Each structure stands twice: as structure tokens, then as C-alpha cells.
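Hi everyone,

Forwarding the result from last night's run.
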Amino acid sequence: MSDDSYVTVLREQIAQAVNNVRAATPLAQSFTNFVTMNLVANAQLAAGGTAAMSFLPDDVIDTAEIAGSNYINVGTLLPFFKDALPGIAYKLHKNGKTWVLDPVAAGIGKTRTAILESFRAYPPTIVRGNASEIIALDAMWGLAQNDSTVPGTRPAGVEAVDEVDAAVDAAKRLARHLTRHSPNGAGAVAVSGAVDLVTDGKHVFRLPGGSAMMTKITGAGCSLGGVTATYLAVAEPLVAAISASLLYNRASEIAEAKSSGPGSFQVALLDALWNVTAEEVAASEIIVD
């Protein structure tokens, strides 16, 4: 199949995913940091899904039985997360449940590193993060063939210090690892940046667009992770990751045009997530490497 034919089919799948979320209002539960919980839940609702938030391991596992997918975010850690999250990942894997990981600030602190390293054996279905986080996670999991320390990259809180292009190989390795351990035989990695990148380990897609205002509100990336889980409830991982990224690109562009600063941008972003059409999302520019 040619690249043009492949993208044509992909666009149809993206439009279907957007419409299916709005028709089915799937539940995607979140174990996410408390700083951005409200925006994550509201974004999932605005995209057409249903939200549930919990920090209790047994509650998360029980809710996973009725949820379409799940989301784990390691930002703003609490002490009990170190024991809770590895156990949750194991149970999700054992029970064949899909989930999305946002490895916020990967590489900072022993506790965060221990949690993220534990996910290697029972990995998520999708990883969504910035370039520095993706490179750091690849290094933690020892997936790089030549040097798992990946010289030249370093964490910088929740912000990336690496360009998206620097994370291509790491993203592909991670995606292949996710696929090998996936309950449905598929995985994907999404790298956020000036031009987003999504890969399933074989194909690489670049998604231009979006708004720099996304970096001026707390939780934009976290909420994208939650919405990615919403899409994972109705679509296979690659389509879910691309659909969520494109939805955010279009919505953030609309929100920037209608806002006058970060406060009004956040409100406008939620409105745009609600109003942007499946056709607008599917018509977005997609570049195949």
C-alpha cells in the first residue's frame, strides 16, 4: 500500500475514532497527579468520553473491569505511589487491560525512576510524553542497543530539553517493546513537540500544528494523556495516539485564536475539544516518514 493510500485509510479511522468516542462516551479512568486532575477529567468529558479518578489500587483494578482503557501519570508523586503503581501495572497486564503512561519528568528522583523502571516488565499500551521523557524511559528500560545512558539528554522537570527528532529511535524502540507485551498485539508512542511524532515501531508519523499556548497552562500534556486513553477505549493504539494528538492540535489552534492569555486559553481549549469536528481532525496534515 502506498503512503497516500495508507494515510487515506488512516484518516477514515481517525474520523471514526472521534465519532465513536462521542457516540459511546467511553470510560477511561485515570491515576493521575493531583495538580492536573481537574483539567484531565474535564478534557476527557469535552472530548466526548467519561472520566473516573482514583488513587486506591483495588479501586483502580476493579474500575478497570468496566473501563474502556486506563491512564497513569507519574507527575507530583506521593509516597505510596512507589508501591501502588507497580502493582496496578501488573494487574492491568495480567487482566489484559490497555493503558496509557505519561512518564512525567522521567529521570528525576529515585522514586520516580523506580516506578518507571518497574513498568518495563508490564508496560503500557501507549506512552505519551515529550522528547526528553521518551529518551529517558528508553534508557531506563535498557532498550538502546549501543548505550542505554543515551549521552546528551537530561531531564528538565516536566519540560523537554531535546527536540522531537532526537527521540525518533527511542520512540520506535519503545513502541516495539510495548507491542511485544500488549494484550492486543499493538502499541504506540506519541512524542509531543513543535511537530508531534507518533510511531508504532514501524511507521513514523509527524503531525504539524498546535499552539505554543499549550506550554502556558498546567496540565495540557496530562490532559492529552487522559484523552489518549479515551481514544484507546475505541481504537487501536496507533489510531488512538494520532487521533488524540490531532484533536489537541486543532483545538489548541482554535483556542489560541479566541483567547487573550493562559486563563481564557484553558477555557477556550475545553470548548474547542467539544466543538471541533471529526472531519476537521481527520483532515489535519499528516507526514509519513
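The chain is about 50% helix and 15% strand.

Cheers,
N.
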